[in-house]
């Protein structure tokens, strides 16, 4: 049951529900992001099984996710009200960036191979903290700066840069351009998604719905220029893309949307580097792929880097400092609001 706040200045106005924590808000933000990364990590496998083009897969994963997100959005609106139109506009723009990322990443894979393309796209781990530093003056820990090159090397190994897939079509130069552009778009999406926390209710489904609509629009717009948008890919392909919508678009982004805004930018970006590592592990179990020793070493390097970056430091003995500091989960929580 919602508590209602009434003030002298607000008499005669419609009562405003007091924000209350949802179920996901009670779970450690790092756990949510890791679970979300796990859901998204099966995306490449499901896209491969669908045999659909990058724009087709991106478009269908979004469109098929809408009927699942809509009931959740209606439930949130009944509980917490409609989200501010300004924020919905920002989330729509974020979704457009996500759609651009998904389409361009598919193009980069065809020109660079999955291994190198995955490494290039993960420049988000550098861009997002830099944006947070420039816009919100959020401090970037020194250990993060030191560990990023090591983790990117681990991602390169895990993705098969040594002894893995190589580019088979097109120009490698254009592949690099597409990969960097995809990584920048992905970073913009994560930054805008993360920048939605405030003292109000924690909407989770509404931002994902707005972003999903934006991604669908971007995929449809880019389709004719990026391999074609097939509106009738066949029932078998639609089945795999429906599974992609549930795992990658609904479950994955709902979990990340709930956890990412409560984390420092460097911690959230680092945890998302688990995605290619988990993709390797899922490929072993689901489609019987056999990773090389280099890929397994890369997985270990990334996991170690994630642990070093996201581990909580020892709490200070000063109770005032202890109350103010929690770098892994939001840092200066009351100092930075992202509205």
What is the count of DSSP helices, taking H or I runs of 4+ residues?
A: 15
CA-CA gap between termini? 26 Å
Beta-strand level of the residues, as a percent range? under 5%
Number of strands: 2
Strands of the widest sheet, in order across it, are 1-2
* Poorly predicted ranges: 1-18, 196-201, 317-339
In this structure, how is the largest beta sheet organized? Answer: 2 strands, antiparallel
Shape by Cα distribution: globular
Radius of gyration: 20 Å
- Structural class, by secondary structure, is mainly alpha
* Arithmetic mean pLDDT: 77
Number of domains: 1
Q: Encode the helix/strand succession as letters.
A: EEHHHHHHHHHHHHHHH
What does this entry look like structurally?
With about 350 residues, the protein is mainly alpha-helical. It has one domain (about 25-310). The protein contains 15 helices and two strands. The chain has helices at about 30-40, 45-50, 55-65, 65-80, 85-110, 115-120, 125-135, 140-160, 170-195, 205-220, 235-260, 265-270, 275-285, 295-310, 320-325; strands spanning about 5, 15. A two-stranded antiparallel sheet has the order 1-2. Helix 3 (about 55-65) crosses helix 11 and helix 5 (about 85-110) crosses helix 10. The longest helix has 28 residues, at about 85-110. The chain starts with a strand and ends in a 15-residue tail after the last helix.
């Amino acid at each position: 049951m919602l508590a209602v706040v009434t003030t002298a200045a607000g008499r005669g106005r419609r009562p405003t529900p007091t924000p209350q924590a949802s179920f996901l808000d009670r779970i450690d933000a790092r756990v949510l992001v890791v679970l979300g990364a796990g859901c998204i990590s099966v995306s490449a496998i499901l896209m491969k099984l669908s045999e659909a083009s990058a724009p087709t897969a991106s478009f269908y994963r979004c469109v098929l996710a809408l009927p699942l997100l809509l009931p959740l959005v209606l439930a949130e609106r009944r509980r917490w009200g409609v989200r501010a139109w300004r924020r919905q506009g920002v989330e729509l723009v974020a979704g457009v960036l996500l759609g651009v990322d998904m389409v361009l990443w598919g193009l980069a894979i065809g020109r660079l191979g999955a291994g190198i393309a995955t490494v290039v796209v993960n420049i988000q781990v550098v861009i997002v903290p830099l944006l947070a530093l420039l816009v919100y003056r959020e401090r970037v820990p020194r250990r993060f700066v030191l560990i990023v090159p090591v983790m990117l090397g681990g991602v390169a190994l895990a993705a098969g840069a040594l002894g893995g897939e190589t580019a088979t079509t097109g120009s490698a130069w254009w592949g690099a351009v597409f990969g960097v552009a995809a990584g920048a778009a992905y970073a913009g999406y994560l930054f805008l998604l993360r920048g939605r926390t405030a003292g109000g209710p924690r909407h989770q489904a509404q931002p994902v719905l707005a972003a999903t609509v934006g991604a669908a629009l971007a995929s449809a717009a880019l389709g004719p220029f990026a391999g074609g948008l097939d509106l009738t890919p066949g029932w078998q392909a639609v089945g795999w893309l429906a599974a992609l919508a549930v795992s990658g678009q609904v479950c994955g982004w709902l979990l990340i949307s709930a956890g990412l805004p409560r984390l420092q930018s460097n911690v959230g970006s680092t945890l998302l580097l688990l995605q290619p590592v988990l993709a390797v592990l899922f490929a072993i179990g689901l489609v019987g792929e056999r990773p090389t020793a280099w890929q397994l070493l890369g997985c270990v390097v990334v996991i170690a880097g994630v642990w070093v970056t996201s581990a909580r430091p020892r709490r200070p003995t000063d109770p005032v400092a202890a109350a103010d500091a929690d770098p892994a989960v939001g840092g200066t929580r009351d100092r930075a609001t992202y509205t």
